[in-house]
Design goal:
Length: 449
């Protein structure tokens, strides 16, 4: 009896991931994917290299459309695999499973809502922990035979593919409504938390709102320090939106700011486990550990503080190593290294790398507050008065939310306190610190620096 076919979309041969690890995808197929398909009583069919000049031939389209089941390996964000996955999701309402190798960064934004199965790699780039992951894949393939909808197109676009003209007209109206609501949210942010809460009542039920408006409200609460409102809002969102990396990261951020450190850590570590490492997730996790360190440090618990400081440094380092282009976790790592007694010697190696990262970022677009704030901290760490003053001017000129200045001021105060203990006081840095602390309790405006 012929078994149903399961088409496999994945890279071929050995390819590097974002971390530089060379992955043997042929081994992944032979030792992990193929046996899982056979365990699910399906027949594996791997996409061969039939494309010439970037053109997918007729047999490839037939396989994508007609195979009852499919597995797509999203590791390395291979362009061909993503194109094929898009075709598959457009024509098949269910029966497509996605997987990815851990340790190569998070999945791209457009696929973060998928229930992708992570698998582990050995240092040699071959599959690890094979039996456990293979069993999970086989169970998911069995579940797919129950016709459970997994295509985000069919999940999110009602009536697809038979979309009526009426639906198109409603879509146009919603676009105009979203523009109007975003403008109102912008005004509400300036008026404070209560105004935002009143506007949020108009958006109920949140799960039915346009995703862009929902995220705008979510981040508007962050701007006015509505941490509990952010947390409450997550339970009201549509599941695909809740499962995005950004929403989960900001949930962890809000929980931590509300003093729920353990819950924040749980959200962020689970996100890293499921979605992979990223500079942003590790950066927020580093902040969780840093806040714990500050609490015990201020309480005089020196022994525990030492361990928590190391934990925060390592989290920030992992974030910087996940994406060297993001200077945020890098500057936090070197700042905390400065606070150790004696200072961590690794900071001397990292400082020029972080400086290069922020300069390249600023050269590639319009610098924001955090770019200038990173320059400021680097200049203070390097004891460069003129550069620090110029960076402070630039940062305050583009400050959007008062908590941004609050965060930078806190970092500079920690540096000053550590240097005071070592008799390395820098008087000019106090002037910058005072102005940042004033702005942290004020609205964005002109600086007196």
């Amino acid at each position: 009896m012929n078994r149903p076919l399961c088409f496999v979309l994945m890279p071929f041969g050995k390819k590097p991931n974002i971390a530089g690890t060379l992955i043997d995808f042929d081994e992944v197929y032979q030792k992990l994917i193929r046996p899982a398909i056979q365990e699910a009583d399906l027949e594996p069919l791997r996409a061969d290299e039939e494309m010439t000049g970037g053109i997918i031939h007729k047999p490839m389209f037939e396989r994508l459309i007609l195979c009852e089941y499919a597995i797509a390996d999203l590791t390395t964000a291979n362009a061909n695999v993503f194109y094929e996955l898009g075709i598959r999701h457009a024509v098949r309402e269910w029966s497509t499973i996605t997987i990815f190798a851990e340790g190569g960064g998070q999945l791209p934004f457009d696929v973060v809502s998928l229930r992708a199965i992570p698998y582990q790699l050995t240092p040699q780039g071959t599959p690890d922990n094979i039996l456990s992951v293979r069993n999970i894949m086989a169970r998911r393939l069995h579940d797919a035979q129950q016709a459970t909808r997994d295509s985000p197109i069919y999940q999110l676009v009602e009536g697809f593919p038979e979309v009526s003209h009426t639906k198109t007209d409603v879509f146009r109206d919603r676009v105009e409504y979203s523009k109007l609501m975003k403008a109102r949210l912008r005004e509400a942010r300036q008026q404070g938390l209560e105004t935002l809460k009143n506007l949020a009542c108009e958006l109920q039920p949140i799960a039915s709102c346009d995703s862009g408006v929902v995220i705008d409200l979510y981040l508007s609460y962050r701007a006015v320090k509505g941490w509990q409102e952010m947390i409450d809002m997550v339970s009201q969102m549509a599941p695909p939106l809740v499962n995005t990396v950004m929403v989960q990261e900001q949930l962890g951020f809000a929980l931590n700011r509300l003093g729920k450190s353990e819950e924040a850590e749980e959200v962020l570590t689970e996100l890293i486990r499921v979605r992979g490492a990223s500079s942003e997730t590790y950066g927020i996790l580093g902040r969780v550990y840093k806040d714990r360190w500050e609490a015990v440090h201020d309480a005089g618990e020196t022994f525990q503080a030492h361990g928590l400081l190391n934990q925060a440094i390592e989290a920030y380092l992992r974030g910087f190593e996940a994406d060297w282009r993001d200077a945020y976790p890098g500057i936090n790592a070197v700042t905390l290294m400065e606070l150790k007694d004696p200072p961590d010697p690794r900071r001397e190696q990292l400082l020029p790398v972080v400086a290069y990262a922020v300069e390249r970022r600023m050269a590639g677009g319009i610098p924001d507050y955090w770019d200038h704030a990173t320059r400021l901290e680097l200049a203070v760490l390097g004891k460069q008065e003129q550069q620090a003053t110029e960076a402070a001017h630039a940062a305050l000129a583009v400050m959007r939310e008062t908590w941004e200045a609050e965060t930078t001021a806190r970092n500079l105060r920690l540096i000053q306190e550590a240097r005071d203990k070592r008799n390395e006081t820098i008087l000019w840095a106090d002037k910058i610190l005072t102005e940042l602390e004033r702005k942290a309790h004020d609205n964005p405006g002109s600086s007196v620096l």
